[in-house]
């Protein structure tokens, strides 16, 4: 028995980097996978390369900062599967700027994708997650939620908000059998930080802040996500239980 056999998993930003590794890992463990990425071409290519029990993964091009597109995404999941067992809010972007030069547009860009995107997906997926009975939401935060480097204030603040939101959702969703956790990866070798890891001077600086003295691989994060998505992670008794009755 594979660890995610017959579960339905939705991964935002699943066309590249960490999200793609998560999508591939979940499919290998038996999940049906939906990739929701704003890059339609890369999303379709990633989905086509992922074998699932029913054929291939599904790509639904989605910009998570656009509420109409998020609603259309959840409608598609409802139509195809009628429930959702795993939601990974992974889509994210960064902006590098000294805080005093950070304009409203740059701040809004980061906030709308990282925070509003996570909020909207977690909220609009609620009915589908509730139908699972044993659902798991995984929000991808960052080491930067608790640590700061220069010129990353918008990104750090957005990841801090995701971590705080995760704690609130964990409390509010638990009575419905929905677990909510976040992952806070360190430096992971993807396109997002490629321009830093590719520069020997900056790479040395970043590795100096990394106890293992190596950049993480997307698969490292996917392995952690796999545990949180699986039934091995602690789960609540779910809706309708005595525990639930006590909650009310
Ligand atoms: P990446 O840039 O390699 O991939 C991000 C994917 O998200 C891309 O396919 C992109 O098209 C998609 N995306 C961007 N905005 C979107 C939107 N509005 N709607 C839907 N899809 C969108 O990035 P990476 O490194 O794989 O990062 C994934 C997540 O991990 C992000 O939330 C990032 O903040 C977080 N993270 C990354 C770390 C790193 O060192 N790479 C460290 C800690 C956290």
Automatic annotation (TrEMBL):
- InterPro entries from the xrefs? KR_dom, NAD(P)-bd_dom_sf, Sc_DH/Rdtase_CS, SDR_fam
Family, according to the entry, reads as follows:
Belongs to the short-chain dehydrogenases/reductases (SDR) family.
Please provide the record's keywords in A-Z order.
Oxidoreductase
What CDD domains does the entry give?
A: SDR_c
Q: Does the keyword Amino-acid biosynthesis apply?
A: no
Start and end residues of each Ketoreductase domain = 7-186
Q: Which organism is it from?
A: Methyloligella halotolerans
The question of whether Oxidoreductase is a record keyword is answered with yes
Its protein name is Cyclopentanol dehydrogenase
* GO molecular function terms listed in the Swiss-Prot or TrEMBL record: cyclopentanol dehydrogenase activity
**Matching Gene3D superfamilies:** NAD(P)-binding Rossmann-like Domain
């Amino acid at each position: 028995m594979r660890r995610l056999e017959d579960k339905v998993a939705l991964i935002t930003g699943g066309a590249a980097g960490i999200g793609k590794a998560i999508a591939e890992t979940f499919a290998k463990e038996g999940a049906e996978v939906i990739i929701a990425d704003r890059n339609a071409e890369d999303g379709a290519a990633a989905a086509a390369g992922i074998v699932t029990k029913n054929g291939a993964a599904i790509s639904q091009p989605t910009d998570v900062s656009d509420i109409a597109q998020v609603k259309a995404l959840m409608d598609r999941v409802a139509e195809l599967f009628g429930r959702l067992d795993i939601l990974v809010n992974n889509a994210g972007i960064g902006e590098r700027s000294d805080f005093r030069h950070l304009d409203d547009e740059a701040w809004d860009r980061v906030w709308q994708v990282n925070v509003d995107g996570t909020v909207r997906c977690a909220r609009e997926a609620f009915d589908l997650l509730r139908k699972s009975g044993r659902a798991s939401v995984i929000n991808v935060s960052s080491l930067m939620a608790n640590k700061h480097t220069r010129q990353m204030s918008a990104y750090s603040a957005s990841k801090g908000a995701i971590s705080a939101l995760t704690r609130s959702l964990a409390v509010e969703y638990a009575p419905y059998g929905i677990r909510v956790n976040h992952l806070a990866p360190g430096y992971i070798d993807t396109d997002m930080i490629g321009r830093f890891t590719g520069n020997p001077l900056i790479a040395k600086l970043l590795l100096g802040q990394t106890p293992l003295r190596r950049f993480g691989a997307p698969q490292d994060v996917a392995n952690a996500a796999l545990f949180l998505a699986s039934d091995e992670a602690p789960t609540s008794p779910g809706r309708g239980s005595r525990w639930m009755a006590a909650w009310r």
